[in-house]
Design goal:
- The structure holds three protein chains of three kinds.
- In chain A, 20% of the residues lie in helices and 33% in strands.
- Chain A has four helices and eleven strands.
- The longest helix of chain A is centred in the N-terminal third of the chain and has 11 residues.
- Chain B has one domain: Folate-binding superfamily (Folate-binding fold).
- In chain B, the strands form two sheets. In chain B, strands 3-4-5-6 form a four-stranded antiparallel beta sheet, covered by helices on one side. A two-stranded antiparallel ribbon of chain B has the order 1-2.
- By secondary structure, chain C is α+β, with helices and mostly antiparallel strands.
- Chain C folds into six domains: 154 residues, 2Fe-2S iron-sulphur cluster binding domain, sarcosine oxidase, alpha subunit, N-terminal domain (Ubiquitin-like (UB roll), Roll); 209 residues, FAD/NAD(P)-binding domain; 123 residues, 3-Layer(bba) Sandwich (FAD/NAD(P)-binding domain); 64 residues, Orthogonal Bundle (Arc Repressor Mutant, subunit A); 290 residues, 2-Layer Sandwich (Gyrase A, domain 2); 99 residues, Aminomethyltransferase beta-barrel domains (Elongation Factor Tu (Ef-tu), domain 3).
- In chain C, strands 9, 10, 13, 14, 15, 16 and 30 form a seven-stranded mixed beta sheet that branches. Chain C has a six-stranded mixed beta sheet with strand order 43-44-45-42-36-46.
- In chain C, strand 6 and strand 7 form a beta hairpin.
- The chains are: A alpha+beta, B alpha+beta, C alpha+beta.
- Chains A and C meet through strand 7 and helix 4 of A and strand 9, strand 16 and strand 41 of C.
């Protein structure tokens, strides 16, 4: 699939923080009964991770998993592996009422790096991005300006952000403006 | 600019992250229902001054619907609860009655 | 004449000289000056002309309450009208122009309005320009517009050169105002561990305390202020922002802060303004007070200023407003000004005190310094035109007969102080009238209510009615702790800082000077400087029956200017109360609305400008379309190409070419915007049977069915093709604009009504690029691209789909057709959409393949009589109106909208129904939306309408115009000719025909 391209095709911007296209990421939406043992073990065997708590996100060597709503997870893997992941889940959960679907192409992903990543996002999201309120390990679904996004910290100064593919270029442009040098209010303590 | 806590994901959501859905706990009347029942279902609303039960969707968040009990005059929020119910939880009604002695309880 | 003093000036740096441009003149100032102080230092007393009478006006105040000194700032892309000189920090190279005059500030033609004062009373516009109607547009409005107006709008061709942004902040306690009360409050809240955000509109702290000579803990206030700011700065849980104004308070602890980052230094990069959108558990407003003018005749002559402002300019900026300054007052505070002037070596001819006795320590001090104090005295009138020359004195208890005249070049007036209650009141905080102090002050027992049912705004210091420094700082200390406690923190018990200032004697409420001011003087006594509202106007309004303060405001325009009546409201409503013989609290205040002080349009827009103004959704082929002649049109948030224009052809020619290419050979269509929603579960079929009007549960795996969705009102809301992927899984296509809406609609029913049904949905619209290969040669193109699927008519018939690979890309071709041609809509992963598109173009080259846009799509579907949501539907149309009865299941007990469609109005045979229309002249295309008329006239005089056009095109295939429309009894009137009205009064004749114009049997698509 060498002809597969992400929305901004590897673009990056160095400002007050670095904004970078995270490229194509394998993503699978899994809807089902998150309390069911079969689902938990299906996820565990597919990506090697236990289910996160509400609003939790975790990453492992085989991928990651994020809690999206009381009956929905978002699983992460290599872009090329997403269909195979759906296949594994379909097999593991046969007989259950669930839905596993490849949504890798329906998304755009960005990685923001730098000490000011919280403040860049706080220019567009009404969520409390302060270090005391928003911690690593939590995924927040919110809006960025006019657009629905989800974001989480993968490291203290690294913010991952996912949005729909069709608005990927708009979000990238938005992030570049928000990340302009000298534009951060600098009120969050490091952490 | 309200803040309502989504009972489905626990986020204290900004009003701009929510979509409003009008009065809660309507009973649907479909094919075969009487004119009066259907009119009541589709058009008649309480438009309460005071305690009000209403539907909200955490549209920019977990995407789930929930219900909120709110005072339409002071904007006090008595509580939020999941949408999968035909009436407000009893303990919420109790809580409202304690705060608002003149509240007569929930009626359809 | 105003000038720079050699002493004082605590805020200016005399070693940093700045140059600025005022009306073309090059003037000098110092770092730390405001534009207002720098103008005064240069002797520029006259700064503008008033809005209505073009009266000469000077600077009155020293803060955001300034009504007169509005200037045009900057040039080109940085020009902004109506900026206050008093809140504009001076910088090198600043360019400012005065407003509302022609041809020049000193000589203004409009000043003739001034002698017409008596012809412009309250309600003048309402009374004068009633009739005739045409005169408003052609005579009155153009003249008034030329003469009036506040400043000049920026050049529409210039783009604002600056950038703006929002920032969302959350805190436990938001403190608005960094005076001594605000600082004490922030310190107490900060010590409790609460997260505190402190906003100060100036670039320095302490408010009036350093100007008024207050001491704190036995030392000058400035020492305590510096120490406290430093202490706050060292607290990790406290954030301080200067040059940031608390602009508004809203429900549930929401507040707006307006930060001006580079207004004072344009060379600073980054956003110019930042709009802080703050959520706080508690909001504490320590916003101080504003001094009121006194209502005496000629109180708007340049040189008449607020006494506090006179003091500010002297102590803060080392500027004297005049050599001989008469002080007029009804309270002790103004004596501070008299004393300060005298101490600076300036002359104070007299303090004119309306009170019959004045005995406070400040008064005694003034007397001891040899200042003449005239009690029981009023100013009868100020003399001078562009500058004060003298004042006449009279008895305060009389009507204004002059008893004496004092030469002077400035007047410092004080009518007492009004707490700034705006932010307390924005969200419903109530006020009490304190008659002893002559002011409205917040009632802490009636605060704005928050989500928890408790008050969420607290008020402290002078804003809380504590005009005395000692009480103000103690109040800040107490209320700061209270705010922290209410926010859930443990506020440490500690002693409040002790402040000292001279005690003040009682104020006398003076709403008219003199008390019985005669009518002639009333007409020269201004309440609202900016809108030129006089005492006589308010009295006239009361006489004419305006009893409500809100009505009087609108009738007289009192308080409706850009200063929102900061100086005029209390004086105005007191005059109204007096005229109505009512008490002030009975009359009440007008509503305080945000923002407290004007904020820039840029800050309100934030980053949303240019390409970020509105979200734009792009398909995977967006860039290709953009560089290959795509003529964009908006479709919901998407952009879709209307057509792909080639060199040398018109848009119309492009559309016709695209249609003929499709009908004759093959074309390619970007259909990616179509919604695609997966619906899965054991109850999926049952669920779709409720959602669609037709039966979906019987659809065979591997097959497609066209379906309609209605609202509970029965009206058609969306349509699309449903494919059954497996026993439990369906894929529902929606319209381009409908994908999010229909997905939300599905989830709403599943979550809130049928939550026990086992169904999951997922919106996979953007997972796929959907590419239509359309036309008689479509199959040949796909086969040439290389595929592992059998695409023959037998293996993959019309309304079937298959899964496999095409051109090495995972693909799912659906044999569905919106054009009536042989058509494959191929879904491929979005990331490979462009690769598939390129491959199709290459393979189709030998068939002349070209892309087609939305207009060709529309024409081709109309040729086939297919409806379009949004054309044939408008929210009042039911499927039965469109002859779609075949798609409405009669077997199902229920579906959404079914009950509504049984209502009498919905089954009325007279409902307008869909037909095709052919004009008598095949070259004439009926205008879209045209109404069918039968030549009769209704009782109300309008033509009787019997239908309307819903779609209308020129069909290059049929070489004639075609249209669809909804017509009364239409399907029963096949072959009849009816008339359509044009806006020019003529009509077009058209014959009613079957809406399917082309290939009724469907032979073209069944190949």
């Amino acid at each position: 699939m060498s002809d597969a391209v992400s929305v901004v095709n590897g673009a990056s911007f160095d400002g007050a923080v670095q904004v970078k296209d995270a490229g194509l990421v394998g993503m699978v939406t899994l809807r089902g009964d998150l309390g069911s043992e079969k689902l938990a073990s299906g996820v565990k065997s597919a990506i090697g991770l236990t289910l996160p708590e509400a609003r939790g996100v975790k990453a492992g060597t085989k991928g990651g998993v994020a809690w999206m709503s009381p009956d929905e997870l978002l699983l992460f893997c290599d872009y090329e592996q997403a269909d195979a992941l759906v296949g594994k889940l379909d097999k593991a959960l046969a007989g259950e009422h669930f839905l596993a679907v490849n949504v890798s192409d329906a998304r755009a992903s960005f990685t923001l790096t730098g000490s000011g990543v919280r403040e860049v996002i706080a220019k567009g999201s009404p969520a409390d991005l302060s270090p005391e309120a928003f911690k690593q390990g939590e995924i927040r679904r919110s809006r960025l300006g006019q657009v629905a996004v989800a974001f989480w910290l993968s490291a203290p100064d690294t913010m991952e952000l996912v949005c729909f593919r069709s608005v990927g270029e708009f979000v990238y442009d938005w992030l570049c403006v928000a990340a302009e040098k000298g534009s951060l209010p600098e009120i969050f303590n490091a952490g | 600019m309200l803040i309502l806590t989504c009972p489905n994901c626990g986020v204290a959501a900004d009003e701009t992250e929510l979509g409003s859905g009008g009065e809660a706990h309507l009973t649907r009347f479909g094919a075969g229902s009487s004119d009066a029942d259907f009119e009541n279902y589709l058009f008649m609303r309480k438009n309460a001054r005071g305690v009000h039960f209403e539907r909200w969707r955490h549209s920019y968040g977990c995407g789930k619907w929930f219900h909120a009990a709110r005072c339409t005059t002071t904007l006090e929020v008595f509580g939020t609860y999941p949408a999968q119910t035909t009436e407000p939880p009893a303990e919420l009604i109790e809580k409202i009655k304690q705060k608002r002695p003149d509240f007569e309880g929930f009626s359809k | 004449m105003s000038t720079r003093l050699t002493n004082h000036g605590r805020l200016i740096d005399r070693s940093a000289r700045l140059e600025f441009n005022w009306n073309g003149k090059r003037l000098k100032g110092f770092k730390g000056d405001t534009l207002a102080s720098a103008l005064l230092a240069n002797g520029e007393v006259l700064v503008g002309r008033s809005f209505k009478y073009h009266r000469p006006r000077g600077i009155v105040a020293s803060g955001p309450e300034e009504p007169n000194a509005l200037v045009g700032l900057g040039q080109g892309g940085k020009y902004e009208p109506n900026q206050r000189a008093t809140t504009t920090e001076l910088f090198n190279g600043l360019t400012a122009k005065s407003q509302n005059h022609w041809p020049s500030l000193e000589f203004d033609v409009g000043g003739v309005n001034r002698v017409m004062t008596r012809f412009f009373p309250a309600g003048f516009y309402y009374k004068t320009f009633m009739a005739p109607a045409f005169a408003w547009k052609h005579v009155f409005e153009p003249v008034i517009r030329k003469a009036a107006g506040l400043g000049a709008a920026p050049d529409p061709e210039e783009r604002d050169a600056d950038r703006y942004e929002y920032f969302y902040a959350h805190c436990d306690v938001l403190v608005i105002g960094g005076g001594i009360a605000g600082l004490a409050a922030a310190l107490q809240a900060g010590k409790s561990g609460a997260k505190v955000l402190l906003l100060e509109q100036e670039n320095h702290f302490g408010g009036r305390a350093p100007v008024d000579g207050v001491t704190v803990e036995g030392k000058p206030a400035q020492d305590w202020i510096d120490a406290t700011v430093e202490a706050l700065g060292s607290m990790e849980n406290v954030t301080i922002r200067t040059r940031t104004m608390g602009a508004g308070v809203y429900d549930h602890g929401y507040a707006l802060g307006y930060e001006r980052l580079s207004d004072h230094a344009p060379e600073i990069a980054g956003p110019r303004h930042r709009l802080w959108r703050i959520r706080a558990k508690r909001i504490l407003t320590a916003t101080g007070a504003i001094e009121r003018p006194l209502s005496f005749a000629g109180n708007d002559v340049p040189g008449v200023m607020l006494a506090g402002a006179v003091r500010d300019y002297m102590i803060n900026h080392g500027v004297s407003v005049g050599d001989r300054v008469v002080v007029a007052t009804n309270n002790d505070d103004a004596y501070r000004t008299a004393i300060a002037l005298k101490e600076a070596g300036l002359d104070v001819p007299a303090v004119i005190d309306a009170r019959s006795t004045a005995t406070g320590p400040l008064v005694e001090k003034a007397r001891a310094m040899g200042i003449r104090v005239e009690t029981g005295t009023a100013i009868s009138s100020v003399y001078g035109n562009k500058k004060v020359t003298s004042v006449g004195l009279c008895k305060q208890s009389g009507e204004g007969t002059k008893t004496d005249e004092l030469e002077c070049d400035a007047v410092a007036m004080s009518g007492g102080w009004s707490p700034v209650v705006h932010l307390w009141s924005h969200c419903g905080g109530k006020l009490n009238w304190d008659s002893e102090m002559a002011m409205f002050r917040p009632d802490p027992s009636r605060p704005p209510m928050g989500a928890d049912g408790e008050g969420f705004v607290l008020v402290a210091g002078t804003a809380n009615g504590h005009l005395d420094a000692a009480a103000a700082i103690a109040d800040g200390h107490t209320v700061g702790a209270q705010a922290a406690t209410e926010a859930g923190f443990d506020a440490k018990d500690s002693a409040a800082p002790v402040a000292e200032s001279e005690a003040e004697g009682p104020i006398l409420a003076v709403w008219s000077m003199p008390q019985g001011q005669n009518k002639k003087l009333q007409m020269k006594t201004f309440l609202d400087y900016q809108n030129d509202v006089k005492v006589s106007d308010v009295r006239l309004a009361a006489q004419e029956g305006y009893e409500s303060v809100e009505h009087t405001k609108r009738y007289t325009t009192l308080g409706m200017a850009t200063d929102q009546g900061k100086l005029s409201n209390i004086n105005g409503l007191a005059v109204l109360a007096d005229s109505l013989n009512a008490e002030i609290p009975q009359v009440g205040t007008t509503t305080f609305r945000p923002p407290y002080h004007p904020i820039s349009m840029g800050a309100i827009a934030g980053e949303a400008r240019g390409g970020l103004f509105k979200v734009l959704r792009r398909t995977p082929m967006h860039d290709w379309t953009d560089s290959n002649g795509g003529v964009w049109e908006p479709v919901a948030d998407w952009r879709r190409p209307y057509c792909y224009q080639q060199a040398g052809e018109s848009v119309k020619e492009a559309v016709n070419r695209e249609i003929l290419q499709t009908r004759n050979s093959v074309s390619i269509l970007d259909a990616s915007t179509l919604g695609k929603i997966i619906v899965k579960g054991p109850d999926a079929g049952k669920f779709l049977d409720m959602l669609y009007t037709n039966m979906m549960s019987t659809l065979k795996v591997g097959r497609c069915r066209y379906g309609l969705m209605c609202s509970e009102n029965g009206f058609l809301s969306d349509d699309g093709v449903v494919a059954r992927l497996d026993e439990n899984t369906f894929l529902c296509h929606t319209t381009s604009g409908g994908s999010d809406r229909i997905h939300a609609w599905m989830e709403e029913w599943l979550q809130t009504e049928w939550w026990d049904w086992k169904v999951y949905t997922a919106n996979v619209t953007e997972q796929y690029a959907q590419i239509g290969i359309v036309g008689p040669n479509a199959r040949k193109v796909l086969e040439k691209m290389g595929t592992d699927m059998d695409l023959s008519a037998e293996a993959l018939p019309f309304m079937a789909f298959a899964d496999g690979e095409i051109a090495g890309i995972k693909a799912r071709p659906y044999r569905i057709s919106f054009s009536g041609e042989l058509s494959y809509e191929v879904a491929v992963p979005a990331a490979q959409g462009q690769a598939f598109w390129d491959a199709a173009l290459a393979a189709g080259a030998e068939f002349g393949i070209t892309p087609y846009g939305t207009e060709a799509l529309h024409v081709m579907r109309a040729e086939k009589g297919f409806i379009m949501i949004g054309d044939e539907t408008d929210g009042t149309v039911i499927p039965q109106d469109l002859g779609l009865n075949w798609a409405i299941s009669k077997k199902k007990e229920d579906f959404l909208g079914k009950r509504a469609q049984q209502r009498p109005h919905m089954v009325d045979p007279k409902r307008w129904r869909l037909v095709g229309l052919e004009t008598e002249d095949p070259s004439v295309v009926i205008p879209d939306g045209a109404y069918a008329v039968d030549g009769t006239t209704r009782a109300n005089g309008v033509k009787h309408m019997i239908g309307r056009i819903t779609s209308t095109y020129y069909s290059p295939t049929l070489k004639r115009s075609i249209a669809m429309g909804l017509v009364e009894d239409g399907p029963e009137r096949m072959g009849d000719t009816i008339m359509f009205a044009r806006t020019d009064g003529t009509t077009i004749n058209a014959k009613i025909v079957d809406p399917v114009f082309l290939d009724k049997e469907g032979a073209r698509q069944n190949v």
